[in-house]
Design goal:
It is a single chain. This protein has 432 residues and is of the alpha/beta class. The protein has two domains: 223 residues, Glucose-6-phosphate isomerase like protein, domain 1 (Rossmann fold), CATH 3.40.50.10490; 173 residues, Glucose-6-phosphate isomerase like protein, domain 1 (Rossmann fold). The protein contains 16 helices and ten strands. The strands form two sheets. It has a five-stranded mixed beta sheet with strand order 1-10-9-7-8, sandwiched between helices. A five-stranded parallel beta sheet has the order 3-2-4-5-6, sandwiched between helices. β2, α4 and β3 form a beta-alpha-beta unit. The longest helix has 22 residues. The structure holds 5-phosphoarabinonic acid. The site of 5-phosphoarabinonic acid (PA5) has 14 residues, from loops.
Length: 432
């Protein structure tokens, strides 16, 4: 199970400051699991992690098998909570270059932007390929995925004819409401459910995340096992609970003027996990004039760019560093007779040994420079670890947002840009 180490946050703060938050964390956790706080009709995600395989999981596996058999490419259409989770999961576990491996179907993401260039690049990639699509939208009305859906549906119908196209369109949406549900029913597409009480950014452990992960060749039972183990382990009501430590430490730091949290990881394939985390915490906490700004950095790459700002810029940030145990298979640094690069002092050392020293050196430098660092330590990257991490962050976010005094489960601010855009586009009902 993952653990949280807060031994690098002290400086201006003491253990007593953290302990003084005990009653608050307790109340926030209790409010959350008893469903007594604002937004409590969106707590379905608490029940998602289960040890036994559900009927929906069996159907997801069967659909994934069919998709893998008849598709070179699987296009996942969705935005926000209907996009970041699956992309984060697939890239972390299968690697950023998973599409180049040739073993599993290539997975592309669409409907998460309005870029003509991105769209034209995708359609060129689909040329001559057998493909299927998964449209993910809880509301079924979001503009970006709706535009991509219309075009991909036509492409499939032109290529395969209406009947075969139907077998290649998979819809993940609300069980009863919305334009997408209606389309799926009328056209006879296979559908998967986003439960009404699960909001977009908390939906990764539904078919939203599980179908794309299964198509990518990931073991969804293991992912669920990880999430269910985390759920069981994070039920404790004390500072033994890593979610308590994380939620309390970040609130303590925020109250002392650390308004920016930078989620850092030494794995390049963590990039979209950081994006998923940014949405989770950003949409859950950024409201009522409050909230820690969720930023992200990839180390060591960003130590050569943002590193200067972190080390000596305004002292308004703290870091949360996500660590994974190194892979069992080592990569060694070899001896070179000429030693022209002067690297022979590392001969016989493994790459992860060098990475560990970079991590330790950075930790020391940043804490010396006045940047508190929270550590989230995990086992090696795998399906199970991923499931644990998803649930850990979701629970911590719910607790933390209640400590902050906001509703973690709404996102009223997201509507503002949409209203302006719809008015400019002349969407019926938005013209005045
Ligand atoms: O967290 C959220 O609720 C949002 O980010 C949504 O997931 C996003 O706006 C997409 O919405 P929908 O799934 O309805 O298309």
């Amino acid at each position: 199970m993952l653990n949280v180490d807060i031994s690098n946050i002290w400086g201006e703060y003491t253990l007593n400051d953290l302990l003084s938050l005990e009653k608050e964390v307790f109340a926030a956790h209790k409010t959350l699991i008893e469903g007594k706080g604002p937004g409590s009709d969106f707590l379905g995600w608490l029940k998602l992690p289960v040890f036994e395989e559900t009927d929906e999981m069996v159907r997801i596996r069967a659909a994934a098998r069919r998709i893998r058999e008849h598709s070179d490419v699987f296009v996942v259409v969705g935005i926000g909570g209907s996009y970041l989770g699956p992309r984060a999961a697939i890239e972390l576990v299968k690697g950023q270059n998973h599409n180049l491996r040739g073993k599993d179907p290539q997975i592309f993401f669409a409907g998460n932007n309005l870029s003509t260039r991105a769209w034209q690049e995708l359609t060129a990639l689909l040329e001559g390929k057998d493909f299927s699509i998964n449209i993910i939208s809880k509301s079924g009305t979001t503009t970006e995925p709706a535009i991509a859906t219309r075009a991909l549906k036509w492409m499939l119908e032109r290529k395969y004819g209406a009947d075969e196209a139907k077998k290649r369109i998979f819809v993940t949406t609300d069980p009863a409401k919305g334009a997408l549900r209606q389309m799926a029913t009328e056209e006879g597409y296979e559908t998967f459910v986003i439960p009404p009480d699960v909001g977009g950014r908390y939906s990764v452990l539904t078919a939203v995340g599980l179908l794309p992960m299964a198509v990518a060749g990931m073991d969804i039972t293991e992912i669920m096992f990880g999430a269910a183990s985390a759920k069981r382990d994070l039920e404790i009501f004390s500072f033994e609970n890593p979610a308590w430590l994380y939620a309390a430490a970040r609130n303590l730091l925020y109250r002392s003027g650390k308004k920016i949290e930078m989620l850092c990881c030494y794995e390049p394939s963590f990039k979209y996990m950081a994006g998923w985390w940014q949405q989770l915490f950003g949409e859950s906490e950024g409201k009522d004039g409050k909230g820690i700004f969720p930023a992200a950095a990839e180390f060591t790459a960003d130590l050569h760019s943002l590193g200067q700002m972190i080390q000596q810029g305004e002292r308004n940030l703290f870091e949360t560093v996500v660590r994974f145990a190194p892979p069992r298979k080592k990569t060694m640094i070899e001896m070179d007779w000429k030693d022209l690069d002067g690297l022979n002092y590392l001969e016989g050392k493994s790459l992860d040994f060098v990475e560990e020293q970079a991590f330790q050196g950075t930790l020391q430098a940043h804490t010396d420079g006045g940047v508190p660092v929270i550590l989230v330590q995990n086992d090696e990257v795998c399906d199970r670890t991923l499931g644990e991490l998803f649930y850990f962050f979701e629970l911590s976010c719910g607790i933390s947002a209640y400590m902050l005094g906001v509703n973690p489960f709404n996102q009223p601010g997201v509507e503002f840009y949409k209203r302006n855009m719809f008015k400019l586009l002349g969407k019926p009902g938005y013209t005045n």
